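Recap from last week: sequence in, structure out.
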Amino acid sequence: MIVQSQMNETASSRVVIVDDDDLFRESLGLNLAEEGFEVIDFPSGEGVLAYFESGNDADAVLLDMRMPGMDGLGVLRRMRESRIPTPVIFLTMLSDEGHEEEALKWGAVDFIDKSRRLPIILGRLKLITDGAKALAGGAEAEDAPDGIVRRGLLALHLEIHRAYWRDSQVDLTLSEFCIVRHMVTNADRDVTYRQIYDIVRGKDFVAGFGADGYRANVRSFIKRIRKKFRDADPDFNRIENYPGFGYRWRDTPCEAADATADTHGQRGPA
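Predicted C-alpha cells:
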C-alpha cells in the first residue's frame, strides 16, 4: 500500500514502514501521510528488500525489530550487504542493548519504542529527512567543508552520522549524535536541558510532568552517551554537568588552544 500525502500535491519525503502488525502499520502510515510524508509499507522483510533491490528508494525506513521469518536485524544486514544506504530507525518494544549494539554496527541510526506517541516518531523522522542539517545551521557546514567536525580527539562524520574518539567508532544513535554535535559546536559553553531536549523532540515539545518534566529524559540521554564514550576510552571526561542548568562539552587547555588557532586561519592537528 502506498499512502500519498493529502497535505501537499508533491510529497516531500518518502518513508517505508516494515511491520507485521497490520493495524499498527496502517495507523502509523495514515498519521505520517497526514503530516506530509509519502508512505510505503510492507508486512515483511522480504517485501521491503525486493522493493529496494528493484531500484526503488526512500528517505528513511521504520523497521520492526521482531518479525516472523526475517527479523529486523536480518533485513538491515541484507540492506547494507546490498549497499542500500537508506537510514533505518528501528521500531521496538525491546530494551535489549545487545540488539541495539548489533543494529548500530550495521548502520541503524536510531530506535523508537513502538508505544511512543506520534510526535516522538515525527521528531526522529525529521532529524533524518531534513538531514539534521538544520540543527547546526550554515556556519557549521562552512567550518566542516570535508563533512567532518573535528574537536581534539573527536571526529564527527556528518554525512553518515558517525562519531570517532581516538580513532575508535562510538556507536551513537542519531539522537545521541545530534546531542554531541550540538555540545561540541558550543564547546565550553553551557547548553540547557531544554536545548538538548529540543534537539531530540523538536522545539517546545511538552514532556513529562510539570515545567521541567523533560530533564530526566535528558539525563538518561547523557548517561548513555557518556557510557558509550567510556566504552571506547575509560578516561573520557569531556561532558560536564552544570547542576540545575544543563551540560557542557569541556575541551582540554590544549584542545581549546588548537580550536582558537583554527578560527584565526591556522591549521590545527589532523
